[in-house]
Amino acid sequence: MDNSGRICIFGAGSVGCYLGGRLIAAGASVRLIGREAHARQLQSHGLTLTSLRGDVKKVRAEQIDFVVDNPQSAADAGLILVTVKSAATEQAARALAAVLKAGSTVISFQNGIDNAAVLQRLIPQCAVLAGMVPFNILSRGEGAFHQGSEGRLMVQRNPALTPHLAQFAAAGLPIEQRDDMPAVQRGKLLLNLNNAINALCGVPLKTELSQRNYRRCLAAAQREGLRLFKAAELAVAALTPVPARWLPFLLELPDTCFKLAANRMLAIDPLARSSMWEDLEVGRASEVDWLNGELVRLAANIGSQAPVNQQLLTLIRAAERGGRRDWSADELLAQLRSTS
Predict the structure, then answer these.
(1) What 3-state DSSP class applies to 153?
(2) Which of 133, 231, 244, 333 has its CA 20 to 30 A from that of 5?
């Protein structure tokens, strides 16, 4: 049987199950590879996929091809979507390198900036493309995954994508091909600096962004990132209707003005939380080293400092060990200002 049209999701957690489920619901041949806990959920409940638009997609358990932690099961796929956490990228790459056939296409749909490069270095026989998932996915348990914000998938432009574009569009996941994915990933990184703030404050994203002092925390982290990117002569793509350099100013507006000026930024489901909040909630190590830590490393490389992002990294590390996750807006802003 020719399985060149099969799509494999490697690392099927919240993002992977959501993307895979939408594709299955649209008729695509998809295999999910992930942990036993997710396999049990899907075997018992199937998949229920919802979004802030109000649409609901259901996939029955018998429609789901889920394999537990077996990289060999990706060998016959023509397209592999890597959705593992950043800390697992190298391990995933080595596992896939041993089984993927030459000419397969791999997309890194991961947070951070360098994951696609790591994958390409270790899987040289495949075309590895950088990708970006702009929206938030919340796991509600029992096979239910909710898309809490809007946005289009973005992937590095490549002819290898052409056979798959119609499948993604049919699934309601249209792919925007980009020639500037490094700049796109930096733009996404600036937005993802909020993951740590949301994880530390203990409230939904929409509630957090409705409070000016939480937004001031994010503005300080973003301003620091923009300064470092400029010093390193690294371009940043605009992923919102305003240029990236305007984001800190917009975030610092009074609540009423911000609400009027940033309706699209608040187009978030009231239940949505950051993936870092979810990591801490279930006791997983977070991706803070590949988000705020990315700026700390960049600062060190160019002989500068990133005190705001360093402090957020430190607070998340403490939260991973059982530290505070209920910082008020005033407390967190004061803590960040004390270090900058």
Answers:
(1) strand
(2) 133
